[in-house]
Design brief:
The structure is a homodimer. By secondary structure, chain A is an alpha/beta fold. Chain A contains twelve helices and nine strands. Chain A has a nine-stranded mixed beta sheet, sandwiched between helices. In chain A, helix 2 (about 60-65) links the parallel strand 2 (about 45-50) and strand 3. Chains A and B meet through helix 2, strand 3, helix 3 and strand 6 of A and helix 2, strand 3, helix 3 and strand 6 of B.
Chain lengths: ~375, ~375
């Protein structure tokens, strides 16, 4: 079986700028070219675009704008997890021998169309993701006594981490009190409990084993887990468990023959504060009900192990870019190139990316 | 290396009905379930949707509506070739060992957003595909003396074939004169030289070698070729050659170790009549400039070898469904299940699917 490595990455700053989707895609590609030694555009066999934008044929357009003539090109969309879906697609082309080098570029605009769950008429007017996040929060409070302050710790921690990420949307730090004093958006969630849609793009370059060696410090994809349980909330085992995340994690750990205790650094999908706590539990970093104390310890010790780039809450959440940015961050971390955000002595990294109330999840494991 | 087979297919009728995209997707999936023996929904590892529709998260929605809980699910978009891009993605998951059974469902509505080449401002107001087809036609006329009547033969032939396809949009036959007397849309192209956007969906089921044997008459994917040359017309070697098709064909034939003379039945992307003539030449069925006489011979002998289901011109062209419908047809043909459309003694089939003036092309080879 071919092995596959991440051998390059690029980012734009995440912002509220009104830039065309094509410009965002080109900027993240240029950032990757600028940072990746020994790259030859003629060797790129696949260009995949991850986005929720309504524009069509973006992979061919990006290819033309950046001087690439790939074999394979298309757009991948799966709401908030489009990025890791694209990366798994690219991985598959490489393992299947259809490509040796694949470029994946994720981008979305602040006004992108994946932010509202339009299809789910059963939700009535409650189509914004914050409503499922509120349900998760209420359930977690009821079952485990989780408090508003516990949730605020996640936001304070991730904004603190984002302050050291030059591409993050947020450049402010917030105390726990600041989070608690931000306005309520629902009964349970403050504004600072939420990630922000924004404009941004990220890119990664994947290479198969035989060509990965010409690049510096390849980071290997060791485990892949994916699960779709439903498109609504009907099939979660409970409102305090993200079933698709649990199943995807088990697959990824089995494939990689790695345990959760081996993970040194992780990017979790904190679309809302409750999501980081639940993800820590469902991925196995903490037992059920103990996600809160896990996060409080990280915050107390200023440990950047979880969401070193600031998570979606601190870095911003341009939907199609997020999964790609997560993989770019883990690559940087495992290459010891994450500068002020660098977590020490890292060898194994994890990415958790999900969509729409965790009705689908992807978990990826990386090793340097 | 895992082998991959097509082991099932489904279709809706292509029509001008105003059906929701979700209904189209579900109908083609149900059609596949109804026709495929020994299928167990629990065994489906991947659900890919091929579409140009702006709705998001359609693979998860289709999965929920049809009772599937796959690992992998997302939408693939690449304009008119979204279908074969999706099938190659599914093929890769199977070869890579991430999935054993994959469902690919393509659908679009008559008013879908992939029909106009919105991005290409260099075209001025000439953003409808008919304008590049007119340029191709003018160039072919100039270089090879191709006539309006030659083009009309393609349309007459494909409408005749479509009459035997119960899912085709068109149920009329047209003589060469009928085509010539249909109204001019541009200087060079009559209405009946053009394929029609419509509402429709098609599906195929792919299985890896170890599970394909539990299905009846697996049809093996033997060759895959893909090429993106550009997103505009800037990189074709000439206006009478579809460079991406030529390159993709060479890859596919090399991978399959099959010659063009071995191909018994083929689905070509006749978005306009000129495209079938050029595709015959660029795929190697005919020498350059001899596509016309090749088509005239087929029409004269009522040979259904090329576009037995009626092509895009006769069957209709719901963008995301087209590539999937082409593969479904070749599967039926190689299983000897194509009823009145059946081409005799078929063993090797070819699918040619392309986008936007052949700025990208996919060529697939199948063997029973």
């Amino acid at each position: 079986m071919n092995k596959v490595a991440v051998v390059g990455y690029g980012n734009t700053k995440f912002s509220n700028e009104d830039k065309p989707i094509e410009s965002l895609l080109v900027s993240a590609t240029k950032s990757l070219f600028d940072q990746t030694k020994n790259i030859d555009k003629n060797d790129i066999d696949a260009v995949l675009v991850s986005t929720n934008d309504n524009a069509k044929y973006l992979s061919a357009i990006l290819s033309e704008l950046t001087g690439i003539s790939p074999k394979i090109s298309h757009t991948v969309e799966n709401l908030c997890s489009s990025g890791t879906n694209s990366i798994v697609s690219a991985y598959s082309y490489l393992v299947a021998g259809l490509a040796d080098i694949a470029l994946v570029v994720g981008a979305d605009r602040y006004d992108c169309h994946g932010q509202i769950l339009e299809w789910d008429s059963a939700r009535g007017e409650f189509k914004h993701p914050i409503f499922w996040a509120s349900m998760f929060t209420k359930a977690h409070k009821r079952e485990f006594g989780t408090t508003e302050e516990d949730l605020a710790v996640v936001s304070a921690k991730n904004h603190t981490n984002a302050k050291l990420n030059p591409h993050a949307y947020s450049d402010k730090t917030y105390s726990i009190d600041d989070v608690l004093q931000s306005k309520f958006v629902t009964d349970d969630l403050h504004l600072l409990d939420c990630s922000r849609p924004c404009s941004g793009a990220s890119s990664v370059l994947l290479a198969s084993e035989n060509v990965a060696k010409k690049f510096e410090q390849p980071v290997w994809i060791k485990g892949i887990g994916q699960k779709t349980t439903s498109a609504s909330l009907t099939k979660n085992e409970s409102l305090t468990t993200m079933t698709s995340t649990k199943i995807a994690a088990r697959q990824a750990f089995d494939m990689a023959k790695i345990q959760v205790n081996d993970v040194d650094v992780a990017e979790l999908h904190d679309a809302f504060t409750i999501c980081e706590i639940m993800a820590l539990e469902d991925l196995g970093f903490a037992k059920k009900g103990e996600g809160v104390s896990y996060v409080r310890e990280l915050y107390g010790t200023q440990d950047k192990k979880i969401n070193p780039r600031g998570g979606l809450i601190g870095a911003g959440h341009p939907l199609g870019a997020t999964g790609v940015a997560q993989v770019a961050e883990i690559t940087q971390q495992l290459q010891n190139k994450a500068e002020k955000r660098q977590v020490k002595n890292v060898n194994v990294g994890l990415v958790h990316n999900m969509s729409a109330a965790a009705t689908s999840s992807n978990v990826l494991l990386f090793q340097s």
